[in-house]
Write a structure and sequence with these properties.
alpha+beta; 33% helix; globular; 3-stranded antiparallel beta sheet; 220 residues; 4-stranded antiparallel beta sheet
């Protein structure tokens, strides 16, 4: 499949099951989205997420559920949230999931807006657009992981958004992918193979306290 040590997989790895894990993870994300409402906290959203996972037959989490609300949407994965933040009437939030289905890892994320928040809506749409632009560059130009993130940062600046350099993308595979050599996509000096890498995009308003996140499998 690939000669790159950082792309090693287990004997049970199956690209079709990777796609199924991806699809089921998106189902879970939208199930959580349906439960988001003004006043909910991040802790409450994570608790309700567990009900969604049970309904979908998720085997386990491979990374903790991340729900970021309001100003917390500017924070990178390893940064702690302000625990007092609750979803406002006109506000934004993002969901980041790492779930296991059929022994394979799904990892998806997206940003949503409730009420009337046009700037936050523009930011969410920009994160999605930037993701697809970078993914298209991967498909069309065969760029390395390093080049993809240099491209993403330049395009974000051109679009008027601040790019979060701490969000770098990563490996996935048959669970647990961590037994193989993975690392960050942004550090990969070769073109990433399909169905093995998550492209993560996180941007923020240059001056206001909100951002947006989008991630999905590099595939197709």
């Amino acid at each position: 499949m690939t000669s790159l040590p950082r792309e090693a997989v287990g004997q049970r790895y199956d690209p079709a099951l990777m796609q199924r894990a991806r699809e089921r993870s998106w189902d879970a994300l939208h199930g959580i989205r349906q439960r988001m409402r003004p006043g909910i906290s991040e802790d409450e959203a994570r608790a309700e997420a567990m009900e969604v996972f049970r309904e979908l037959g998720c085997e386990r989490l491979w990374h903790p559920v991340l729900v970021r609300i309001g100003a917390n949407t500017t924070r990178a994965y390893r940064q702690a949230s302000d625990p007092d933040v609750r979803l406002g009437e006109n506000d934004s939030y993002f969901i980041d999931l790492g779930l296991v289905f059929d022994g394979h890892e799904g990892d998806v994320g997206d940003t949503f807006v409730i009420g009337d928040a046009p700037q936050q809506q523009a930011c969410a749409e920009a994160a999605r657009a930037l993701f697809h632009e970078v993914a298209d560059a991967w498909r069309g130009q065969g760029l390395s992981g390093q080049a993809l993130y240099a491209f993403a940062e330049a395009r974000a600046a051109a679009m008027g958004w601040r790019f979060n350099q701490a969000t770098k993308g990563h490996r996935v595979g048959d669970f647990p992918h961590a037994i193989h050599k993975g690392g960050d996509l942004a550090d990969l000096g070769a073109p990433p193979s399909r169905d093995l890498w998550i492209l993560e995009i996180q941007i923020a308003h240059p001056t206001e306290p909100f951002g947006a996140f989008y991630e999905d499998l590099l595939s197709g």
